[in-house]
Amino acid sequence: MSTSFPYGNPDFQEVTFYSRDGQKITINLYSIDLFYQYNVRICINLGSQLGASVVLLVFLLLLTHSDKRGSSVFILNGLALLFNIVRLLFQTIHFSTPFEKVYPFFSGDYSAVKPSAYAISILGVVFETMLVMCTMISLVVQVHVVCKTLRRRYRRPLLAFSVLVALVPIGFRMGWMVINCIYIMAAEGTAEWVWLESALNIVITISICFFCTVFVVKLGHAIRQRRRLGVRDFGPMKIIFVCGCQTLTIPALFSILQYFSHVPELADNVLTLVTLSLPLSSIWAGAALENAQRIDATRRPRNLWRALAFGMSRSMSSNRSGTEMTATAYTGQTLCYADQQISKHSQDSEIPLAISVEHDISVDSVRCSRQDKSMA
């Protein structure tokens, strides 16, 4: 049987403690509850992001072929995941430092905080800036690769504008890093610089939307052309298209929702979602491409003409021409094959030449030797 509390709501009882100089500090229990609940929620959010980043980094290292580990996209995506892991690790450790104790937080007395706690907080801010730089550079590189087939007069302005769009959030982030580190060393709040943090979130959201819009529109146009050609399989391009839509919508949605809801965990998820989406699309696309090649190799149709025409050439030495190598490599397709390198001896002799055209129609032709021409 519950009884009424004589002094009002018990959650709002006031607690009084003394500072180092003997002044009284009065707070209520509700403020202490909010303080601990906020720390617990942030730590859960950071821990989940940290676990996802570690798992994806392991997958990226294991599932990427050794010949592709030297590419700029792999290096940038791997560094972004590594920087994100270090950032989340330092931010999680921050909540175990004296900065997050009740007395320093409510009294403002941080004299007992050790220099290591300041270093942990500053390193978390620095690695977040490095994460933003790697993410933006990776987006610029991937947009450049995707738009490689565009005309030069369109590709160069797009690349220049992409670099500009990437430099703006990097500049804002570096400015916010400097101000944040200064206020961390002074152990003061950054309430007067809230506008800069809000502007940073806005430019990051705009840059993500821009890059991914270019990325998705170009790949969507390519997929549409493939459908016109009769290629309707769910290949790597569609996978990158889907992941590009995910990279476009989900981080931007989280970044926009933070202005309409009082959930502080939403803003911290934006960079992690972008960092996870970029390598995830390449891993998925690479796995689908390997699976498609494996299925094509097992289901390759047996053609009697190809076995007679190219069966003996596979056991020959490496003096085959480049065109002949190409023809034997893609035996699963209908090719138009012709030997481009004909020796003088073959021109003077009667050697039948076979040409494979569409629907596997074989056409034989015979060259006339010079001796036959003179007799004629």
From TrEMBL:
The keyword Nucleus does not apply. Keywords: Membrane, Transmembrane, Transmembrane helix. GO terms for biological process: pheromone-dependent signal transduction involved in conjugation with cellular fusion. One of its GO terms (cellular component) is G protein-coupled receptor homodimeric complex. Pfam families: STE2 (PF02116). It comes from Penicillium cinerascens. It comes from the Eukaryota. GO terms for molecular function: mating-type factor pheromone receptor activity. This is Fungal pheromone mating factor STE2 GPCR-domain-containing protein. InterPro entries: GPCR_STE2, STE2_TM1-TM2_sf. The chain crosses the membrane at residues 38-62, 74-97, 117-146, 158-186, 198-219, 239-260, 272-292.
